[in-house]
Structure formats: C-alpha cells, structure tokens
C-alpha cells in the first residue's frame, strides 16, 4: 500500500543540512521485539515493566530483575534489524554524501540500530548487551560463572546489572546533552515508534518544534506529539521509512 508522503516533507528533507530522529520500541516491533507497553509476552506477562526496571526492584529482588533482562537479552539476541532500521542507516549515508548530518537518538536498548549500520547514534537509555556493576558502577565484560544470580562484579564483588537506564535513574549526561543539541540544531526532526510518554526523551521533538524545525511523526497510533507535529505519517516504521528514503532518492 503506497503511503502518502507529503511533498512538503520531501522538500524539507531534500533541503535539510541537519536531520535528527528519535526512535522508540515501535521501530523494533517488526523485528519481533515486544514494545515496552504492549502486553508482555510469555513468562513475564504477570509483571509490569515499571515494576522490574527500577533500582528499588533490583535491590528487592536482584535475581528476578537479572533474569528478566537475561530473557530480554536472549530475545533481542535473536532479533535482526528490520527495513525500518535499515532505512534510517541508508538515510544517514545519503545525507553524508551531500555533506548533511543525520543524528539518530534512540530510547531502545536492543542495539538493532548499530547492527543496521547507523553510525551517528545516541543511546539515551543504554544498551542491553552491556553489563555494569550495581555497586561500583564499573563496566563488566566477563565474570565468573559460579552460579551466582546476578553474577558478581570482578572488580568489587558487587552485583552485576544491565547497563540500561531504569525508572528513577538519570540518563547518561553526555548522551542527553548531545540529544538536545541535535534536536535544537536540526532542520527536520523525525519521531519514530515512540509513545512519547517518558521524559526527557519525549521533550526532544517539542524542542525541535520550538526551534522552528519541521517535525514528522511515524507511528500507526496517535501520541501526545501527533496534534503538534508538522506531519503525521500513520503506519509501521518498516513500511513508512523505506518509502520515505525511496521517495527521496527520486529527484
Ligand atoms: P512504548 O511501548 O511506550 O511505545 C511504542 C510505540 O510504538 C507506540 O506509540 C506504538 O504505537 C508504536 N508502534 C508499535 N508498532 C510500531 C511500528 N511497527 N512502527 C512504528 N511504531 C510502532 O515504547 P517507547 O515509546 O519506546 O524506558 O517507550 C519509551 C521508554 O519507556 C522506553 O525506552 C523505556 C520505557 O520505560 C526505560 O526503560 C527507561
């Protein structure tokens, strides 16, 4: 089904010197990774993610939280980038060819944008494939498999945890600063596959709007941004983004 792409959006993208995009779990939905607020599948359906992804939950039951993330890591390990991820990486390459800059800001922790080839990538909420110590904060690449769950930090003996941002935790400051700078400097901002419910990421498209950028949303459903965006492209990222990149390649 050909998707109606507004001519004015194509003009704005062709003229843009700087484009920024914010992605959420929706861009990985077509890779088989459940979105954050859709019904949890399988074993974990009885848990609310908000009740697991917090420092308090980890301190209360570190084994449960470690095992939930081990389940997500295994699930994500089987996932592959979908046409939406690949289109964003292709878009970055095409802009670079004409000296324009594309900054991809993601809330996702699944690593699929990097796998798809995106280079200028800001991981606002960390990355599931990285592990660090809950107690001393040092990253851990390997650890003793001695049956401890969660495993122990090789540096201090503390409990290891996924290197992802939990609720009530601060985002990595350098990533957050870079994301706001990209949103404030861009000519066009794409918001793809995010419900726009979690701050500070949800403020990025509004920051771009405030600075006079053209803002386009890609989402099959309405979000708090929809009423404010310059353009709303209703559809799955795996179809809309390739169609957008293809339309841009036709002069
Ligand atoms: P959500 O699960 O809140 O929202 C997913 C969005 O993707 C929804 O708006 C869906 O309509 C949309 N969607 C579903 N399928 C899609 C598709 N094929 N193409 C495009 N969009 C699609 O996930 P996020 O908005 O990413 O943070 O959630 C933001 C943050 O909340 C997460 O990063 C996580 C969570 O708490 C932390 O864990 C800190």
Briefly summarize what is shown.
The protein has helices spanning 7-15, 26-29, 49-52, 55-60, 62-78, 83-97, 112-116, 173-185, 204-210, 237-249; strands spanning 18-23, 101-106, 121-123, 126-133, 160-164, 188-192, 214-218, 231-233. By secondary structure, it is of the alpha/beta class.
Can you put this structure into words, describing what you see?
With 251 residues, this protein is an alpha/beta fold. The chain has helices at 7-15, 26-29, 49-52, 55-60, 62-78, 83-97, 112-116, 173-185, 204-210, 237-249; strands at residues 18-23, 101-106, 121-123, 126-133, 160-164, 188-192, 214-218, 231-233. The radius of gyration is 19 Å and the shape is elongated. The model has no long low-confidence stretch (mean pLDDT 94). It is built from ten helices and eight strands. Strands 3-2-1-6-7-8 form a six-stranded parallel β-sheet, with helices on both faces. A two-stranded antiparallel ribbon has the order 4-5.
SSE blueprint:
Elements: H1 7-15, E1 18-23, H2 26-29, H3 49-52, H4 55-60, H5 62-78, H6 83-97, E2 101-106, H7 112-116, E3 121-123, E4 126-133, E5 160-164, H8 173-185, E6 188-192, H9 204-210, E7 214-218, E8 231-233, H10 237-249
Bound molecules: 2'-O-acetyl adenosine-5-diphosphoribose.
Mean pLDDT: 94
**Fraction of residues in β-strands:** 15-25%
Please identify the structural class as seen in this structure.
alpha/beta
C-alpha geometry:
elongated
Main sheet attributes: strand count, strand direction, barrel closure: 6 strands, parallel
Whole-Å distance between the termini? 21 Å
Count of DSSP-assigned helices = 10
Bound molecules: 2'-O-acetyl adenosine-5-diphosphoribose
